[in-house]
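Hey,

Quick one before I head out. I ran the complex with zinc ion overnight. Inputs first:
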Amino acid sequence: MNGLSSTPHTTVLQSALRGIACRCPRCGHGKLFAGFLTLRPQCESCGLDYAFIDAGDGPAIFVIMLAGAVVVTCALIVEVKYQPPFWVHAALWLPLILATTLLPLRSMKALLIALQFHHKAAEGRLIERAPK
Ligand SMILES: [Zn+2]
């Protein structure tokens, strides 16, 4: 048992919603995180061992792409329409950068974990062949 066995009738949407809510990908009740991005060792509700989780840099990449598109679009619109001094840009975009990167990061990590669990994604392994 590698911890990736899911409940039999979980749809992708249910798994994604569990992820966005930062809940256990198997039962949907236990909390996933112990800190801001630190995972608990296992689910407090169903006992799922979270050792299989490997989100890597995936959440950061998606958040950077999303935040970059939002902030650059807003900055370009404000610059073209109002041409404010640079301190106005700093005052506007630094808080927006923090908000658009830090706020969705936790849910994005949990979403990718839930999808990893749903699709039973894991590192590839070589299959030993029987000798001829
Ligand atoms: Zn659970």
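Residues 16 and 111 are 6 Å apart (CA to CA).

Talk tomorrow,
K.
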